[in-house]
Amino acid sequence: MRGRCHCGAIELDFMPARAPQALTLLACQCSFCRKHGTRATADPDGLLVITVTEREALERYEFGLATAQFLLCRRCGVYLGAVCGERGLVNVNCLDDQARFTQPARPIDYDGETAQARRLRRERGWTPVEWRGA
Ligand SMILES: [Zn+2]
Questions:
Q1: How far is CA 124 from the centre of its chain?
Q2: Taking Cα atoms as reference points, which of 6, 28, 1 lies closest to residue 100?
Q3: How would DSSP label each residue in 8-22?
Q4: DSSP class of 70
Q5: How far, in Å, CA of 69 to CA of 66, rounded?
Q6: How far is the CA of 102 from the centre of ligand 1 (A)?
Q7: Measured between alpha carbons, how far is 43 from 45 in angstroms, rounded to an integer?
Q8: From ligand 1's centre to the CA of 74, what distance in Å?
Q9: What tens-digit pLDDT sequence spans the chain (134 residues)?
């Protein structure tokens, strides 16, 4: 499933092993995600390819426990997803076929989770990431 930021400097190819309708959508309640209206999903058995066509456009934003890098386009401001080590999460709002994700976004609050628990959860639940491009 193809996706990109608004200007196209950063592209996504999300290849879940499951059908999009079977994937849980999460509306993380952290202040960053609420400001973006994030609907996130991942599939540990799939693959997320992130292609950076313009290296200077990629912002890796960290906050809180700084266990993940939130990927934003510096030019157009779109939030694409996050990476933690070699795993990633996609913001479904950036995908061309976002209408194929039919599950309602489930509000979820990770406050109080330790950095270690957070890394472990992502290792198990997030999608393996492959970087391409600049
Ligand atoms: Zn952009």
A1: 15
A2: 1
A3: SSEEEEEE-SS-GGG
A4: E
A5: 7
A6: 26
A7: 5
A8: 7
A9: 999 999 999 999 999 999 999 999 999 999 999 999 999 999 999 999 999 999 999 999 999 899 999 999 999 999 999 999 999 999 999 999 999 999 999 999 988 899 999 999 999 999 999 999 86
